[in-house]
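Dear support,

I submitted the protein below through the web form. The confirmation email said the job was done, but the results page showed an empty box. After a refresh the structure appeared. I'm attaching both so you can tell me whether what I see now is the final result or a partial one.
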Amino acid sequence: MSQPSRRYSYHLSLVLVLLVGLVISLIPVGSAIGSPSQSQPALSSSLVVEQLQQPPMANLTSNSLVRYSHTLLLGSSGSATQNGTALLAAMTTIANANPSAANPYLLKLEPGQYDLGSASLTLLPYVDLEGSGEVITVISSTIGSSSNPVTNGTLIVVSNTETRFLKIANSSTATNTYQTSIYIPATTTNVHFTDLDITASGGINSFGIFNSYGSMATVQNSTFTVSGDINSWNYGLLNLSSGTVTVQNSTLNVSGGQQSVSLYNNLGGTITVQNSNLTASKGVVPVGFYNLGGMATVQNSTLTAYGGSTNSYSLANTGTVRIGASQLSGGIAPLVGTTTCVASYNINFVALSSTCL
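What the results page shows now:
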């Protein structure tokens, strides 16, 4: 082949390559070979994640209620009273959805104050209540009972529920009332409390948790603070006859009054305490743990009482109590009961006898 012919072939090939490149550059990206159609645009992995994380309402207005399939998120930018009213309404909304074992619900609260006034919030079966932290999420009420045993509280729980990550408060300046933060009605079962701050004050009797006849509850990682004046009777957690309570990794502090009892177990009740601190102080007769004819097991815990004007008892027992690897700081009430101590000690780390003396 001659030299001009080779030169012609080279230039022709170059022209064809340039033309093909120009045509490809003019084709829209969405129409390129192998790309999805415009009706189904491709999303990068980062964009997919961003869309999944985007809530249905980016900015909650005052008391907005965002609803997912089985979760309701309640906003708290209103006043404490408005937030409390919205909380009660949210529970009504869930009630209309008919929660059940196959249709459970979660009511999630934003940080804030939820003041119920003189009303109670009653949970529904298979509905969990969750705050955004026990320091920054507070449900409060002044509701009280006119007689004891009590019949209400700031929060009334039912079977198959859990309350977690918030503060429940009850207080009143009224006279002749019985103030309760959490009330558990009779024969309630499968109730759980986790990471709560529970406070009660101002009643003739004030109760952190009042567990009624035959009810079963578990308390974990929670703090109780109950107090009253010299004429009151105050209880961190009271367990009535045939009730069953487990307390784990919790702190119960009760002070003031004619009698202040951190943990009270009534006739026929059963209590298990593990890795917890029970403290009663001041008033006339503070008692760390009062077991009145019930059955109790205490493990790796501290029972403390001090500052009573008459007496201070870390333990008062007329039933059966078994204590293991625990500290008892304060006297032992001279009551008739079966008390067994194993590997336990007093405030000076002196070993106690098998009867906790």
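Response: this is the final, complete result; the empty box was a page-load delay. Residues 27-60 have pLDDT under 50 and may be disordered.
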